[in-house]
């Protein structure tokens, strides 16, 4: 996996008031990075700017790489799905429908779905919020482990502790 560097240059977003104010930041490819701060300080807006869901009022977002779509044959797809289920600790639940999974298990499936494409950047907005207390360390380790595997995880939380 190549790419995944995130660079924010004088990034500003204004709505009725300033939500993000002249942020300058560099996150190296594969580095685990967290945005931490109180509610309403611009964490989610910053992630939305990085993802391209919002346009900056001023400044620049530079991404070296990003999500890509690829056609994969059924055998390769089955192998990748198995790897991702193992990564998030859900191999025993492979045949279950989403409604048969707990909220925390559904959130881990969402993480696996995001990772299966091999993204260069992985944006996580309060990723542990809906997880059961005992599952949060598993998901946190999965996201951190994914950093070594390639994508640059950018984590947004209001809590000083990720769990």
Walk me through this protein's architecture:
This protein is of the alpha/beta class and 163 residues long. It has four helices and six strands; from the N terminus they run βββαβααβαβ. The chain has helices spanning 43-51, 74-87, 103-116, 136-149, and strands spanning 5-14, 18-27, 33-36, 58-64, 121-125, 152-157. The strands form two sheets. It has a three-stranded antiparallel β-sheet with strand order 2-1-4, with helices on one face. α3 runs parallel beside α4 (136-149). The longest helix is centred in the middle third of the chain and has 14 residues, at 74-87. The mean pLDDT is 77.
Topology:
Layout (H helix, E strand, L loop, with lengths): L4 E10 L3 E10 L5 E4 L6 H9 L6 E7 L9 H14 L15 H14 L4 E5 L10 H14 L2 E6 L6
Parallel strand pairs: 3-6, 5-6
Antiparallel strand pairs: 1-2, 1-4
Helix pairs in contact: 2-3, 3-4
What are the main properties of this structure?
alpha/beta, 6 strands, three-stranded antiparallel sheet, 163 residues, elongated
What number is the mean pLDDT? Answer: 77
**What's the shape?**
elongated
Give the helix/strand class: alpha/beta
Distance, first to last CA = 28 Å
Record the strand order, biggest sheet.
2-1-4
Low-confidence stretches: none
Helix content range of the residues, please?
25-40%
Q: What is the element string, with H for helices and E for strands?
A: EEEHEHHEHE
